[in-house]
Write a structure and sequence with these properties.
It contains eight helices and 15 strands. It is of the alpha+beta class. It folds into two domains: 157 residues, ABC-type transport auxiliary lipoprotein component (Rossmann fold), CATH 3.40.50; 118 residues, Porin (Beta Barrel). Strands 8-9-10-11-12-13-14-15 form an eight-stranded antiparallel beta barrel. Strands 1, 2, 3, 4, 5, 6 and 7 form a seven-stranded mixed β-sheet that branches.
């Protein structure tokens, strides 16, 4: 008998457990979880719920509006007795009051808008985009008191459908990769110096317009000289790190020991002011095909 009671108690506790914070669901399942959670907090059939589009840390295409509209439909589907205020009705009220909505409603905001909001509860919140998931922080606030009635943190898998909703345009969605801040992609000229296995010591001048980069490098030391022209394409760029692919064409002579006229393709890496490149070249002269070129130096952008 005692064993049965213990088992029932354990099952009851398991049933009351909240959704684990490290659980990642699809968008559809996440909305169902939130709807089910908030529905438990509604006390009467006279409750009227207003759901606001959530705001986030990245440019928002239609994710916020899609979330609010789908959550409203799901809550109504789960509990047909409650009333759900249309999103455009609430947005109209906010616009008429010149309210600058930022995703959540605090006590002061509720107090200012209380006379104009025909709802018992407001559901609002925000989202943060991570590498593999979107974290939703959603609250249900009682209009009459400004008190947070309930809240939930829900993680949503960053799948193709969610990426498409987050994208501000079809180009953003197709790219599906981090876009550097504007300060990083503004066109700029730069200079530097390097040491290369083919061209020895080099002075470098270049022009960068993300994701493309063009530079000339060369040197002249009597009978030792060389010049190279490179076109590069960045596949990633941040404040300190940049890397991508490069194509080069050049000529090099080392006194009377060797001469090499070549084209090549390879990979480059910039970290802070430090620069490195590996180029596999083919051409004609006194060196054998193919001929690798290693280059290390510093660039000042």
């Amino acid at each position: 008998m005692k064993l049965i009671i213990v088992c029932v108690a354990v099952l009851a506790l398991a049933g009351c457990a909240t959704i684990p914070s490290d659980r990642v669901d699809t968008l559809k399942t996440g909305i169902e979880n939130i709807s089910r959670r908030f529905d438990k907090g509604l006390t009467t059939t006279d409750d009227k719920v207003a759901i606001i589009p959530i705001s986030g840390t990245s440019p928002d295409g239609s994710f916020g509006a899609y979330f609010s509209d789908t959550l409203a439909s799901k809550m109504k589907e789960m509990n047909p007795k409650i009333s759900v205020l249309e999103r455009n009705q609430l947005e109209k009220v906010l616009e008429e009051r010149n309210f600058n909505y930022s995703g959540t409603f605090d006590q002061t905001t509720i107090n200012n808008l209380r006379p104009f909001i025909p709802a018992t509860y407001i559901v609002s919140g925000s989202y943060t985009v991570f590498d593999k998931y979107v974290e939703l922080n959603i609250r249900m606030v009682e209009v009459g008191t400004g008190e947070i009635k309930d809240s939930i943190i829900q993680q949503i898998a960053l799948d193709s459908d969610v990426r498409k909703l987050l994208a501000t345009s079809s180009e953003d969605y197709v790219a599906a990769k981090p876009v550097p801040a504007k300060s990083l992609i503004n066109p700029k000229t730069y200079w530097g110096f390097s040491f290369a296995t083919l061209n020895k010591f080099n002075f470098i001048v270049g022009y960068s317009k993300y994701p493309f980069d063009t530079k000339f490098s060369g040197s002249y030391w009597g009978r030792t000289y060389g010049i190279e022209y490179d076109n590069s394409y960045a596949i990633y760029k941040s404040n300190d790190l940049e890397h991508g692919f490069t194509l080069g064409i050049g000529t090099a002579r080392d006194k009377d020991k060797s001469n090499w006229n070549y084209i090549g393709a390879g990979y480059y890496l910039n970290y802070s002011v430090f620069y490195g490149k590996v180029l596999l070249t083919a051409g004609f002269g006194s060196l054998a095909n193919p001929q690798p070129e290693l280059e290390f130096g510093m660039l000042f952008k």
